[in-house]
């Protein structure tokens, strides 16, 4: 049986040189984070490792002590100062590659957050099943915040209470996330994306405001399903509208790695049997994705050039995010019978002064999505269909349909300066 600790006792387990895994999204224990912040000397020489998500996870563990470091798979806003200071080791990996990496390294301690044990002695991972279940048996020491506030959905992975080494039992707040306000351009993007979605489709959609604008128009569809890495608040209205399939269990209508949003969302996933949680080894597996008929993968990028390749992680040469599961899902949708691989974005920056459809990506900018992985580029202006197109045909679609009208002349003029597009 695990040893019971007070929150303050947590720091006694930490020793310089250790690698400490901290879950992401609502799997992150804010109680453990608070203890570490209040006892920062205990973080000296510690390397924290986590898949922290931009806009969701707000704590910079590398900043807890001058001798602390972090390994991350995104450069989140919270981590930017430490990243600029050289205290964050950024690993640009596809989501599907992260679990094998975590299993390949030495993890001294995993700081988990789970529900209280049920009558069978099983603790639920609750709202975050993407990576925590997959490191059980690989981390040397399991320390769990047993939090009665976290729901225990019937379709979530569990860990045996007796498999834990140490437990801290205390109610505490969960990570919550607000998508933010929509605007007219985002609503137009969402409406254009929604026009591609038919009855019986399975939707994968990334985090962000576009999620709301895509799902809102779908309430008149029938037998929809969701399969992806994350669900947020906009899913609830769609699920309650009658547009989604009613099946639960092994073939559940809503399959996800994590849920992150409001308390209302957490109550919803706790009670609705259509929702099941799965590790990233399932949600992002190319073979699983390819086996789902009519999978529509909808993801965003920062900018896209007229060759059809996208940057989803850098602004003016600075790393501001990561590709995450983009490529996993786009490639899975391309394998799916009847699938559609979509990159959705507003065609200009928020002030309207800069086009996000560009002649070429700037030198030093990461190509997050290769041109071969994109089928549709959707903006507020329309749907650019890049399927089976030559490079000049892709450029034509992107300039004449996806780009904002005020930038089209500029893009047409630049087209002939792109070697791959020069007319002979």
3D structure, described in words:
This protein is an alpha/beta fold and 424 residues long. The protein folds into two domains: 7-169, Glutaconate Coenzyme A-transferase (3-Layer(aba) Sandwich); 184-417, Acetyl-CoA hydrolase/transferase C-terminal domain (Glutaconate Coenzyme A-transferase, 3-Layer(aba) Sandwich), CATH 3.40.1080.20. The longest helix is centred in the C-terminal third of the chain and has 12 residues, at 391-402. The protein has helices spanning 30-38, 80-84, 95-104, 184-194, 209-215, 234-240, 263-271, 280-283, 286-290, 326-335, 391-402, 408-415; strands at 3-4, 19-21, 47-50, 69-72, 88-90, 107-114, 122-124, 139-146, 158-160, 166-169, 202-205, 225-227, 230-231, 254-256, 258-259, 275-277, 295-300, 303-305, 310-311, 314-315, 318-319, 340-344, 357-358, 376-379, 382-385.
CATH class term of the largest domain: Alpha Beta
CA radius of gyration is: 22 Å
CATH architecture of the largest domain: 3-Layer(aba) Sandwich
Strand order of the largest sheet: 1-10-8-6-2-3-4-5
Cα distance spanning the termini: 75 Å
CATH superfamily of the largest domain: Acetyl-CoA hydrolase/transferase C-terminal domain
Total number of strands? 25
Question: Tags for this entry?
Answer:
eight-stranded parallel β-sheet; Glutaconate Coenzyme A-transferase; 424 residues; 23% helix; globular; eight-stranded mixed β-sheet; 21% strand; single chain; 12 helices; alpha/beta; 2 domains
């Amino acid at each position: 049986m695990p040893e019971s600790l007070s929150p303050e006792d947590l720091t006694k387990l930490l020793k310089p040189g250790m690698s400490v895994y901290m879950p992401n999204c609502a799997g992150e224990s804010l109680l453990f984070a608070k203890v570490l912040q209040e006892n920062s000397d205990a973080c000296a020489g510690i390397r924290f490792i986590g898949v922290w998500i931009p806009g969701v996870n707000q704590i910079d563990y590398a900043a807890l002590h001058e001798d602390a470091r972090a390994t991350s798979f995104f450069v989140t806003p919270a981590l930017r100062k430490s990243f600029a200071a050289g205290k964050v080791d950024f690993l640009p990996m596809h989501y599907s590659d992260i679990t094998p990496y975590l299993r390949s390294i030495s993890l001294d301690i995993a700081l988990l957050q789970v529900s209280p044990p049920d009558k069978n002695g099983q603790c639920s991972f609750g709202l975050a099943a993407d990576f925590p279940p997959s490191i059980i048996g690989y981390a040397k020491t399991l320390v769990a915040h047993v939090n009665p506030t976290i729901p225990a959905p019937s379709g979530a992975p569990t860990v045996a209470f007796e498999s834990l080494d140490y437990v801290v039992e205390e109610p505490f707040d969960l990570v919550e996330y607000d998508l933010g306000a929509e605007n007219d351009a985002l609503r137009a993007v969402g409406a254009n994306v929604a026009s591609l979605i038919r009855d019986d489709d399975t939707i994968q959609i990334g985090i962000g405001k576009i999620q709301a604008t895509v799902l809102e128009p779908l309430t008149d569809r029938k037998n929809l399903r969701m399969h992806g890495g994350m669900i947020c608040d906009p899913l609830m209205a769609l699920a309650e509208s009658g547009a989604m399939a009613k099946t639960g269990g092994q073939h559940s209508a809503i399959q996800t790695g994590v849920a992150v949003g409001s308390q209302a969302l957490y109550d919803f996933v706790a009670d609705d049997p259509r929702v099941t949680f799965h590790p990233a080894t399932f949600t992002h597996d190319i073979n699983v994705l390819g086996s789902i008929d009519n999978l529509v993968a909808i993801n965003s990028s920062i900018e896209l050039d007229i060759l059809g390749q996208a940057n989803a992680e850098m602004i003016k040469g600075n790393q501001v995010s990561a590709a995450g599961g983009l490529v996993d899902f786009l490639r899975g949708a391309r394998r799916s019978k009847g699938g559609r691989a979509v990159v959705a974005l507003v065609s200009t920056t928020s002030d309207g002064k800069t086009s996000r459809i560009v002649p070429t990506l700037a030198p030093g900018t990461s190509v997050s999505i290769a041109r071969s992985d994109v089928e549709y580029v959707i903006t507020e202006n329309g749907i650019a269909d890049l399927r089976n197109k030559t490079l000049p045909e892709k450029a034509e679609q992107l300039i004449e349909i996806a780009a904002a009208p005020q930038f089209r002349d500029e893009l047409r003029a630049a087209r002939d300066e792109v070697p791959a597009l020069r007319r002979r």
